[in-house]
Amino acid sequence: MTRTIPDQARLDFALALRRQWAGSVYPRLRAEYDTVLAKNRTRRRGGAAGVIHALPGYESFAWLERGSQKLLWRAVSEAVDHEPPDDAMTAGESTLALDPDLALPDGTRLGDCLTALGDRERVEPFGPVAQ
């Protein structure tokens, strides 16, 4: 797979941002967390998540984490969207045929899954449902 220079630069930037995040921002947040735990051994409301969200470095940590993850997913998505099929076999219509007589174990059929969900979720099947 060959990438254009801008696509490669975008990916390199995202990966460099992740390395920076992992090498400096995350360890700093971890040190802040350890300091808070060392000073205050009593349980806080919200558990570990409550402690972490209250740390001074959490806001920048979370922003960098989400931002770099979005950059990486965009790069992957764009690469998949723009990459032509490797050969004629993958370019046409699918020829996959499912065996209607295949016996599936209990709990793996769609009907079993819908029954297990009960009234908690509303799921409308599309097409025939094997029972």
Summary keywords:
mainly alpha
How much of the polypeptide forms β-strand, as a percent range? under 5%
General shape: flat
Helix content: 55-70%
What is the domain tally?
A: 2
Indicate the mean pLDDT.
77
Rg of Cα set = 24 Å
**Alpha-beta classification:** mainly alpha
Main sheet overview: none
Query: SSE order, as H and E?
Result: HHHHH
Total DSSP helices = 5
CA-to-CA gap between the ends?
Answer: 43 Å
Regions with little confidence, pLDDT below 50 for 5+ residues: none
Count every beta strand, where a strand is a DSSP E run of 2 or more residues: 0
What does this structure look like?
Helix 1 (5-39) packs antiparallel against helix 3 (58-82). The protein has helices at residues 5-39, 47-54, 58-82, 88-91, 110-117. It contains five helices and no strands. The mean pLDDT is 77. It has two domains: 5-88; 99-131, no CATH class.
Explain the layout of strands and helices.
Blueprint: H1 5-39, H2 47-54, H3 58-82, H4 88-91, H5 110-117
Helix pairs in contact: 1-3
At a glance:
The chain is mostly helical.
